Protein 1
Amino acid sequence: MQTAFLNGTIFTGKEKLEGKALVIEDNRIKAIVENDLVEQNINKIDCKNLIISAGLIDLQIYGGGGYMFSDAPSRESLYGMADALVKSGTTGFYVTLATNSPDVFYRAIKVVKENPHPAVWGLHFEGPYLNAAKKGAHIKEYIKRAEKKEVEALLREADGVLKIMTLAPELCDPEIIRLLRDHGVVVSAGHSNATFEEAIEGYKNGVTTTTHLFNAMSSMHHRDTGLPGAAFLSDKAYASIIADGIHVDFNALKISKKMMGDRLFLITDAVAPVVNGKYIHVEKEDRFTLPDGTLSGSKLTMLKAVKNCVEHAGISLDEALRMASTYPAQVMNLPDRGKIEAGCKANLTIFSEDFQPQLTVINGEIKND
């Protein structure tokens, strides 16, 4: 079946197009054509005064719609979270779990494997192989050094659904990084106290991205620029950033964008309220904290992060959209997502000029019309 989206402003990931029609067929993008060339007998959707973007992708998110997946991994929490994120304009995400017990990690794997959802693209384990000196909101008692046998067992159980792991490169043997990469896992440096030299060595050993730049990592000091400096000066490593003005000041976002260009991308790191258990997240007006006031997750959506980049960091809309779609797809080696061109997945985020989600299309299916 074909559907044409007419009269919208299309951001393809490369250019901005007006007065064109975007045609999808089944689960793929077919073409961008002149409006008067759209076949008469296909489904047409008027997107006047709306913006059409490649689907937004979140590589790090814990909860949504009132559901915190790691608090109680289940089909209900997975689908409740996923459906809420789709309504907010996110077309694909990686369910994230903080440092926890092996039992929680294994239960999460089981739930994701047994309950596929088109917007759930895999798991992101943020830990447990972190540096306790930069634990942030993570539970210290579960933080450990990586051992090969344990990692091998985890990868066997995951059987491909574990897609990202955040670890502290200064405390992780290169053999572990190679093992993860050999199993298709993207390795990210985070919750790390690495010196500049240690961080650069981590990138050389196969770490390809960096988790929530500035947060829970060595500081950028003029005598040791630490992990942020290494991310800035690397010619290949990416970094995610939480663009809420709270986790990272908007001026730091501006500086990071100038330094990293197309290697900086957006995540939400969003959580949901949790009142019991190991991880308690207290909801505030504009953030979440632990009971002791430690900053934990954000209240962002991907579309809100894009809006903040445009309105508070001087980043153009087309570039902010690339930070939320094209660059995350590149990090995850997904060449058919994060852009609008023939042959790519028909994943679209359609929103108003005031950044309100209107339609989300996943694999050619309109999810929230």
Note: The CA atoms of residues 243 and 249 lie 8 Å apart.
Protein 2
Amino acid sequence: MGNKLLVRSYNVELGDCIYVRIPNGSDDFHILIDCGTKGKKILLETAVKHLFDILPAGDLPGKKRLDLLVATHRHEDHIKGFDPEYFKDIQVKNIWLSALMDPNHPQAQKSLRLEQFTAGLVQEVVESETNLSPEMEILASLFNIDNVGAENFLREDLPRLNNIQTQYVVAGKTSTDYGVNLAEATIKILGPEKDIDGYYLGRDIDDTLNSIESFENDLANNNTGLANDTPHNISQQDFRMLKSRMLSDAFFFAEVSSKVTNNSSVVLLIEWKGNRLLFVGDTEWHGEYHKNKRNGGWNVMWNVRKKDLNSPVDFLKIGHHGSYNATPWDGDKGDNYEVNQILNAILPIPPNGEKSKAKAIVSTERSTYKTIPKADLLVELGHRVDNTRNYADAFAAKGINPEERVQKIAYERDFLDKNQPYRTDFEGILNGKDYVEVEFEAKN
């Protein structure tokens, strides 16, 4: 306590719940970044109770103090745990949300329109009891109705209970700009850009919005939907075609909307006594940056905020639970490829066999998603960070058969004997701990 910066990632299966303690003169500064899961909500309750035990006393009797709460974006694996019952005894001093979570943000109206339409369409698909593909089931889960309650709590109830204003943060600002003054650290916001529609949707979205209006007109004129098996003013054949189109469009719109939400994640760069720590939410990369086109958040940061990314970091919160599209790396492309330039800048491979001093954590679960985590990506990151483990050896040393403990282990089999960064799922199996953590000492 006091002289080391701590990052702790709670084991909440597939989700993020991250606690950061920053030394701050005579009193530490306490941050919670996200509180969500696609798994059992009891895991989040356990994490918040543990957090309550280690937080300092607040200004009110029986309350504990949380200096900053950050919700990087609105997906359930990041906000599901923002429940009034969990936070009733925690006094929150500052709330930062992604600008895309502001329903009145003028430069996100197209993105919000897309999300509103998609949520309704996905709900129709789910209610129709249509057999969904695994991909569609994943996308449908992102528009879970429970997200609405968590968002309302973050935007309205929690600020009211703590007599504060929610801040919808954008790139280019710092903690000081949002009234958070730290004695020994600075928090920079690297994403999202204020012009969400312009950077993450681009001009092509106008055609998509026109398609939405046309589709809604079809539904209104025919007085039907997926959940309605009695068509009006439409033949059975045309109705079947409409249902097919609805499923196809639902998948397309959900995928686009989900990517915009991920790319609008709050990205934080914490600088403390010579250390640089990067927390990236679920921001994605999309090949190379193109002006006025739909871009990935990493590409936007590299082209707009390069001065903050063009040097090594001491810590990386691996994005999107180790997903293939959330850490800028493409093993099939060379070092000159824009995406690989980013990773080589923030986590360079140490030269001449030297050992990296950087650290990384991935909050993940090997279960139903074959691309989460992407095993070869984690092995690549294992070449670039210090806190790694050979999980094949670690499991063997404890007499654990991973085939019996981890679903879909086939996606890992060729990589278990190679060093990977600390990951919450495997560390939980090995050590029975509810979290993974790393510490940093001052460099200057």
Note: Residues 236-263 form the longest helix (28 residues).
Protein 3
Amino acid sequence: MEGLTQHYPLTLDKILRRANRVFPDKEVVSVLPSGKRHRYTYADLYRRTVRLMNALRKLGVKPGDRVATFLWNDHRHLELYYAIPCVGAVTHTLNIRLFADQLTYIVNHAEDTLVFVDETLLKPLEEIAPGLKTVRRYVVVSESGRTPQTSLAPLGDYETLLAEADDTEDFPELDERTACGLCYTSGTTGHPKGALYSHRGIFVHTLMAGQVDMLGLSERDTLLPVVPMFHANAWSAPFIAPMVGAKLVYAGQNVSPEALVPLIREEGVTYAMGVPTIWQAMLAYLRQHGGGLGRVKRMVVGGSSAPLAMIQAYKRELDVEIIHAWGMTEMSPLGALNRGLAKMEDWPEEKQWAALARVGRPPACVELKLLDEMGEELPWDGTSAGELLVRGAAVVFSTTSHGLRWNRTTTAVEKFRGMSRSRFVPR
């Protein structure tokens, strides 16, 4: 007998619609290349995304097409994060730091048909354009709104496309398993490999990552994701913030402490995400120049392990909690996150710090296990190391797995072998 639950496809338009309906006045702030700050609301995001969807259709984008972004973190990139998948196409975020040959390979392998490029990033794209076999058009995103001189052709202007587009709402009924995003990740051998995400996977990932003992973001927060939007779904920030109604702040291309510290203070940032090098540089800057971080209470660190000394310094000197996170592009990306447990409150201080230096526990809907060289499962004892296997609602299929099977994560194994063995899962 089938259950009586309503059919409610978990598609990304639901997040966008919720932000517009429930949190229309919450802000999205972007630092532009000139240093000026652009600000608008979730209601503005919704209206512009609807226009962008119609502009994409006008450009011939069809369901299943791959549309690439070669952009910094800002509100236009956020609009593309929703408009592309909401017309049934696939958002392919291009890593602006890749070598030319790798970038050429992934654009051709993905068969991208359209590329949105920031005006400040035209040169690297111009260099590889002759080798791009499937791209039929480029759209430049600029601060001025004027089309720059470039060899890329044919070329359109982002703001002009939106201005000329219809504002009629036309959200197609999509299957929740429709592909919505694509991100290439380097493996241990060969070319980068694409991780293809579904609407359902990203939606479920947003729900599980937003749990109180995971990222725990709320409507009261102001989120600064310093993590690039071309990296692993920007750690889900573009989806979690609109879903819960948090204010979003994008730093643009300048992520130096000199730029970030005043932005954090003036915009009332309470929560930030980034790699350890960003926060190490910021700590050194604050020690030299004085002052604090205003309302910031939590910072998520991923990409590599945060030094224990840095975790302690942020807490003792700035009263900021550093939260360790680990994940993989193939996991959408969250695999584990470390928030202190109730039982740890009675531990000696040294033991508490040692536990907080680990990467923590998996969220709901993610399962992890370790195997030894003979394929036997190892215990969760805080010391065992082996081959890591994962499965879950937001884990993409490997080339050999189907259904609810375990994916072998060779890349993750190599990362863990480079860390102290006690850092994976605390007891």
Note: The chain is about 30% helix and 20% strand.
Protein 4
Amino acid sequence: MTASSSVTSTGFDQFGLNESIVRGIRELGFESARPIQSETIPAGLDGRDVLGLAQTGTGKTAAFALPILERLLKSGGNNPRALVLAPTRELATQIATEIQALSKFTRLKLATVYGGVSVRTQMNALRKHPQIVVGCPGRVLDLLQQGILRLREVETLVLDEADHMFDMGFLPDIRKILASLPGRRQNLLFSATMPKEIRGLANDLLRNPKVVELADAAPASTIDHALHPVAEPKKRDLLEHFLALEECNSAIVFTRTKHRARHLADHLSKAGHRAVSLQGNMSQAQRDRAMSGFRARRYDILVATDIAARGIDVSGVSHVINFDVPNTPEAYTHRIGRTGRAELEGVACTFITTNDRGWVRDTERMIGSRIPLRPIEGFKLDPNEKPEVRRQSRGRPGGARPGGRPGGGSGQQRAGRGDPGGAPGRSRKRRA
């Protein structure tokens, strides 16, 4: 029975999905297909290759998961038929969790494989003959070379966040994995940006693909983002200013180094905040506890390095605060994209010192617009030097809005535009 014959309220009936899949969609609360889904799901269902250029938080997982589930329900089989590769353990876990939820009312099985944890549990999961394998390239290749993971029957390959895989040096591993797959298969490649290396991979991998280009270097329109000048020694005080705002109910704070993330989280905890760090020196078990605690709201503040800037989908993050500017302009939109997801509103604050003027210039060039400059009263730069940032010609002085406080900064990526005291009007309707 198809969705169109029984359930029309989800908005996914247009795809004619199996009723068991529709039940999973309905239980997740997805009400209407988002643009990346409407554009790619029909092609995926037809067996076409897909190149999707879209930022994180746009619904990509369901865009590739739903065609995979539909195909598996029709074809059957008890060996891996779909392989999904992701750059980080957190993203692989997130993808697996959503696919499992969507397939809850089917008998399809999934295994997740990634490094940093014991391989034995993952080997046991593979012995149960899952139809779907989600993993990171390094562990997938290791299991493949040991003969534990067999991919001879894979019909669909997904590369998610391919640009980040390149950033992390995974392309050689990916090419080795590709050599072990059947030549006749469907390929789905998703990326937020298209550097020349990923363009070359796409040209080699995809055959007459359906190209859907929704990616934009500019931040999502639901994010109110701004620059806040501050002297380096005053960054902690400025952070406390934003965390004290009434509308700051959940925040991700980004730092440049692992050491700084750990110490800042410790400082915030001692100051009475429910804070936890997420950085690369942590074991997988520690990272899992940090993320699960943040998702469950046992922690209000996640202090992270860029390991969390991609693929971490935590609903309702009200603020992203760049305690340190990112290493590259491209990382800016990925970081602040942790808020304002699924069309909710959010606020992003970036602390800039006199040393960050080059980064500001390059980032504004990349996103194609000026980032509003909103000084906060009581926080000043070195009087002998000011960063090369200019106020937007449009907008209100000091970032104030009608009814707001002059000179007040935006505390988050999405709350009331430019007014730290304005309560954000967030829509809670959830979409896939």
Note: The first helix runs from residue 3 to 6.
